[in-house]
């Protein structure tokens, strides 16, 4: 390899545009694979080369050591070691990027040499500890040593080696004690020194990180006590030295303390930690004794050292989550010491939740404990012993009562003054945080039940008084209402004390004089308690009045959501309020204040309310509500103006109509007999089908609009069911006209619905069959125009097409027996679909094939198709299992084997002989493995689980992957 050309390629890679970078990267990657890379990597690291070239040389050396160790002759091992050490010394003064890569390369070298050089780790440590390398400062040598040692466990997990990974890890782990002792000795000396120099901090940081990396593979916890004690000393040294100065930790001190705390967490959460409960207790006590003073000093809003508080709380929570059973023992313990430790720990975590300030702007700790509160109540409630569970619940109830008050306080929104400092990201983070509070309050309910409502009742009174004294206190009342909204789904519908009080409060609040967010939360709460309103209808008028007020405010989104929930759950209870409420909805709808999404949502409530009007009142109301939609749609289609603006309006109006179609249904809600009265949706469809046809013609190339159009019709059909029969001819014409121009998925879905519903109807059978034939013809014609390797471009269409055929062949298999459907082409394109990487086409084409096979024996033409194409089906299925289909998806092919084995058992034996073909389906599976797979498939005719397991295992073997089944 020409070194000059290589250098130019490296510079091109690091300093060029993305296209050139990609080309350079591909070439450089190939060069790195060559055996010559062992030689030119040293050339590239010469002192006169640029930093980029030197870094590429070091990276190449590391890559070769990682993957191509077998290319190094044994007699060259010592020379390679010396060259590595010389390079490390040469780059001791920088660039650090190159030095780091060389250290990691040496780590990989040590891992490979452990068998040949068993004292490698000790020897390297001794070399650097005793400053045996010239021209390097003490701190630099320590930094290099820690970098090399820290890389060893990571490289052991990454290198290509003939040694089993578990054995290698076991060999590495034998040295963990030595490594921890080495690091601890170094850190202890530094901790006892009077101050921290910047160079010391960098080396200590590297040392602590090194310890954490070695501990990740596990180490007996009782052997970590001394190391943990040193780390705690170091955290305190970093913190208190800064507090005595300007009170703010430097970035280096902060990072060092943070890494110490993270390493302590690694000790506590390692896999075998549960085997050391006594040591865990000692550790937790050490943490509390050593760190609580720091927490106290930082327990204020806008504190200077928030990161260290976050790190300490994270450590405490991780410690107890990894020892959850130990915590439960402490809750109910007769031991004073154990119980006292539990109390201290819980108090600290409660303080974490109650950190002063509003998250995330003024504090960032309180979010950390949310998972802990779930874990604690979950562990208690899942106790097997009723007596122990009752005892623990009795103990934690006061804790959760206190927690409830804390959470309500933390849920308070920033007021008008403080919110000016908040960014959009802060607001979104706070929204997610409030959702976490909402979830945690539900866990509080699981512990406190009705007692939680009593707490809320007191807080509600306090919130009302706070608002009366000063309107700027609205966040306090809003937080209580939000909290009560959070537990709505848990509330018994017979509750008749606190919830009535809440509803009365919501109706009495003077929203006009308060922040609009309070109204938004109140409206959301109304919707959340829809099930309670169903059993307590006397409170509906107040709720409706509030929702109407919301419709005409900036909180219309919450109002439409609340009204949707109420009309969905309490439809019959709202009958007496339907007419006046519809008038209010109509005014809001046509008032011009609602956003498009709000108008669409409101149409759902309008449909539900309109369904309860008497039959003679519905037409006029319907005209008021939907005429503007169809008038605008008609105007757009007449003008034939296709622009982004007309597209948005068309989608908006179609979505409104869809929503109305989904919710307007008079059957089951009218007291009088409605059998002879046409459904309102049918009346609308009869008048507007020409507009739908015009929309379909005008926007046929716009999938979004065609999808919205088809959704409208689908909602109408599924809502009307048999009542839509008069409209089927027009509907079929519209669907076919769409397919004549463009095959689209939404049209396929509505066609599937119609065919399944009406195929067996004597009056509609002919039309439904013709519709099916037309759809199959148009889609096959479309598929025939797709280039062989481009079927992924129409994967969504293949998915919908075979989803339709899978359902119809299963439910209406006779449809395929009349000879006007080309079953051979259906099978042909199903086999095209199953080889695609996309999961949808694979799933539904496989379903179609298995259902087709299961039904085929009833009809001669279908039988002939399978007899002639069965071998191809089996061959393609085996190719998919062997290599074409992602291994996580191959289980679906079990259905094909089962269906063929049930209906064509003799033919299956013949078709499976394709496995005798050499290197089929791949070269990685042996003949004996293929025979075993074939015998199992032939033998098993019923148990799908067994076939799935065999398919999974065979797929793994075909890909050279060992798998436990």
Automatic annotation (TrEMBL):
Assigned protein family: Belongs to the importin beta family.
Alphabetical UniProt keywords: Nucleus, Protein transport, Receptor, Repeat, Transport
Keyword Nucleotidyltransferase: no
Organism: Phlebotomus kandelakii
Family annotation (SUPFAM superfamilies): ARM repeat
Domain of life: Eukaryota
InterPro entries in the record: ARM-like, ARM-type_fold, Exportin-1/Importin-b-like, Importin-beta_N, Importin_beta-like_NTR, Importin_rep_1, Importin_rep_3, TPR_TNPO3_IPO13_3rd
Subunit structure: Interacts with UBC9, RAN, RBM8A, eIF-1A and PAX6.
CC per GO annotation: cytoplasm; nucleus
The protein's name in its UniProt record: Importin-13
Domain Importin N-terminal: 24-90
Broad class of the protein's primary localization: nucleus
Pfam families the UniProt entry points to: IBN_N (PF03810), Importin_rep (PF18773), Importin_rep_3 (PF18806), TPR_TNPO3_IPO13_3rd (PF24140), TPR_TNPO3_IPO13_4th (PF24139), Xpo1 (PF08389)
Cell location: Nucleus
GO biological process terms on file: protein import into nucleus
GO molecular function annotations of the record: small GTPase binding
Presence of the UniProt keyword Repeat in the record: yes
């Amino acid at each position: 390899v020409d070194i000059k050309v290589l250098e130019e390629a490296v510079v091109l890679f690091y300093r060029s545009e993305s296209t050139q970078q990609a080309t350079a990267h591909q070439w450089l990657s190939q060069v790195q694979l060559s055996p010559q890379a062992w030689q030119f990597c040293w050339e590239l690291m010469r002192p006169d080369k640029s930093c980029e070239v030197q870094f590429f040389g070091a990276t190449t050396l590391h890559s070769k050591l990682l993957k191509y160790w077998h290319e190094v002759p044994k007699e060259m091992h010592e020379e390679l070691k010396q060259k590595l050490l010389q390079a490390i010394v040469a780059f001791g003064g920088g660039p650090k990027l190159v030095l780091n890569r060389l250290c990691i390369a040496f780590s990989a070298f040590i891992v490979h040499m452990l068998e040949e050089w068993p004292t490698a780790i000790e020897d390297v440590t001794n070399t650097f500890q005793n400053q045996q390398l010239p021209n390097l400062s003490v701190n630099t040598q320590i930094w290099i040593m820690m970098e090399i040692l820290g890389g060893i466990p990571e490289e052991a997990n990454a290198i290509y080696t003939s040694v089993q990974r578990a054995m290698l890890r076991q060999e590495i782990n034998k040295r963990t004690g030595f490594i921890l002792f080495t690091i601890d000795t170094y850190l202890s000396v530094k901790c006892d020194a009077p101050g921290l120099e910047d160079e010391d901090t960098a080396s200590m940081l590297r040392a602590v990180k090194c310890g954490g990396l070695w501990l990740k593979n596990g180490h007996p916890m009782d052997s970590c006590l001394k190391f943990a004690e040193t780390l705690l000393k170091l955290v305190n040294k970093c913190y208190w030295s800064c507090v005595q100065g300007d009170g703010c930790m430097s970035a280096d001190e902060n990072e060092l303390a943070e890494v110490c705390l993270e390493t302590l967490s690694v000790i506590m959460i390692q896999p075998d930690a549960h085997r050391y409960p006594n040591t865990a207790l000692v550790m937790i006590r050490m943490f509390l004794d050593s760190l609580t003073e720091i927490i106290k000093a930082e327990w204020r809003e806008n504190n200077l050292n928030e990161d260290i508080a976050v790190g300490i709380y994270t450590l405490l929570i991780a410690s107890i989550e990894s020892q959850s059973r130990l915590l439960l023992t402490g809750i109910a313990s007769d031991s004073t010491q154990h119980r006292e430790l539990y109390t201290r720990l819980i108090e600290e975590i409660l303080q974490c939740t109650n950190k002063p300030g509003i998250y995330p702007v003024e504090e960032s700790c309180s979010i950390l404990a949310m998972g802990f509160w779930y874990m604690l109540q979950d562990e208690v409630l899942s106790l097997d012993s009723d007596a122990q569970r009752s005892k623990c619940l009795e103990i934690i109830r006061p804790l959760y009562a206190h927690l409830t008050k804390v959470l309500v306080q933390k849920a308070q929104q920033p007021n008008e003054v403080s919110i000016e400092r908040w960014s959009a990201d802060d607001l979104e983070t706070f929204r997610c945080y409030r959702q976490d509070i909402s979830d945690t309050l539900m866990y509080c309910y699981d512990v406190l039940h009705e007692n939680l409502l009593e707490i809320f009742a007191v807080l509600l009174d306090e919130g009302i008084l706070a608002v009366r004294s000063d309107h700027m206190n609205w966040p306090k009342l809003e937080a209580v209402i939000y909290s009560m909204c959070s537990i709505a789904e848990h509330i018994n519908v017979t509750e008749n004390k606190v919830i009535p009080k809440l509803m009365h409060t919501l109706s009495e609040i003077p929203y006009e004089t308060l922040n609009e967010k309070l109204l938004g939360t109140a409206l959301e709460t109304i919707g959340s308690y829809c099930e309670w309103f169903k059993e307590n209808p006397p409170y509906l008028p107040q709720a409706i009045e509030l929702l109407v007020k919301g419709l005409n405010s900036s909180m219309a989104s919450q109002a439409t959501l609340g009204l949707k929930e109420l009309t969905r759950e309490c439809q019959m209870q709202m009958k007496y309020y339907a007419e006046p409420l519809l008038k209010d909805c109509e005014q809001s709808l046509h008032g011009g204040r609602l956003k498009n999404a709000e108008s669409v949502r409101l149409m759902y409530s309008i449909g539900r309310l309109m369904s309860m009007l008497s039959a003679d009142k519905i037409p006029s109301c319907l005209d008021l509500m939907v005429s503007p939609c169809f008038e605008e749609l008609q105007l757009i289609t007449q003008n034939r103006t296709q622009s982004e603006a007309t597209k948005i309006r068309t989608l908006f109006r179609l979505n409104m109509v869809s929503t109305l179609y989904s919710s307007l249904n008079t059957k089951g809600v009218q007291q009088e007999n409605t059998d002879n009265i046409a459904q309102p949706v049918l009346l609308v469809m009869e008048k507007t089908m020409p507009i739908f046809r015009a929309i379909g013609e005008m926007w046929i190339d716009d999938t979004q609009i065609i999808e919205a159009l088809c959704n409208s019709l689908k909602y109408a059909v599924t809502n009307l069911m048999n009542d839509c029969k008069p409209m089927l001819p027009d509907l079929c014409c519209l669907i076919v006209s769409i397919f004549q121009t463009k095959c689209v998925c939404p049209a396929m879905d509505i066609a599937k619905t119609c065919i399944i519903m009406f195929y067996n109807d004597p009056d509609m059978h002919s039309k439904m069959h013709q519709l099916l034939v037309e759809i199959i013809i148009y889609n096959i014609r479309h598929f025939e125009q797709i280039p062989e390797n481009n079927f992924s471009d129409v994967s969504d269409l293949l998915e919908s097409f075979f989803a339709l055929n899978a359902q119809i062949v299963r439910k209406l298999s006779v449809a395929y027996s009349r000879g006007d459907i080309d079953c051979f082409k259906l099978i042909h394109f199903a086999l095209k679909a199953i080889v695609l990487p996309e999961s949808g086409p694979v799933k539904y084409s496989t379903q179609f094939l298995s259902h087709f096979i299961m039904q085929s024996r009833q009809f001669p033409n279908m039988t002939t198709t399978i007899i002639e194409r069965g071998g191809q089906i089996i061959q393609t299925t085996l190719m998919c299992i062997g290599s074409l289909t992602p291994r996580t998806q191959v289980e679906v092919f079990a259905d094909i084997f089962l269906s063929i084995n049930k209906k064509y058992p003799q033919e299956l034996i013949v078709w499976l002989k394709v496995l005798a073909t050499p290197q089929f389906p791949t070269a990685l599976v042996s003949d004996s493995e293929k025979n075993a797979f074939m015998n199992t498939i032939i033998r098993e005719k019923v148990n799908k689980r067994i076939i799935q397991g065999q398919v999974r295992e065979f797929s793994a073997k075909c890909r050279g992957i060992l798998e436990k089944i």
